[in-house]
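hiii, so i know i said id send this last week but things got crazy w the move. better late than never?? heres the sequnce for the chain we talked about at the cafe, plus the structure i predicted for it. fair warning i was half asleep when i ran it
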Amino acid sequence: MAPFSRLLLLIGLAVAAAGLAVPAEAQTTKIRGHFFFYIAPGQPASRDSSFLGRPQLKTNTPLVHFGGGGEGLVTNRFGVGTDFGGIPHATNAGSLDVLSVNGFYHAIGGDHRVDPFLTAGVSGYFYDPNQKTARPNAGAGLNMHLGHTVGLTVEVRQSFGSALREVRVGLAVWQ
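okay and structure toks below
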């Protein structure tokens, strides 16, 4: 793994761990974080097969991003998180790996049954042992609690500079 990749991975894991490490008494009264798994059909906004610059995407291949991650609430409205995923068979060289570190803003607080949120951060794309690209991203979504610990999440995310736009649909497990 390249030094840049290791650094980005360590930062993401540290941010997620710090956000989820809250006292046990705080966890009994409010939701303090969650883990999520998602599938995200996506496409380059311009339908350009070179949306990442250097790697060429296979033409006429749907992009489906699979991944998972976690978010920890720092306050009732602000959180930090990270996610890791991949887009199989996206490039002529194979898969495209994605690691994102994001901040989250929950408009009405993270402990409601329906929880709209905004997010922004940086995504690292890894498509070759020596090739990587980092791009800013932004998105908006909705968490829907189906019970005390399980729910659904839907998010629209745009990666700037790469022109990748995706709709993430996933399952969340709250802590």
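btw The longest strand covers residues 114-128. thought thatd interest u
miss u guys!!
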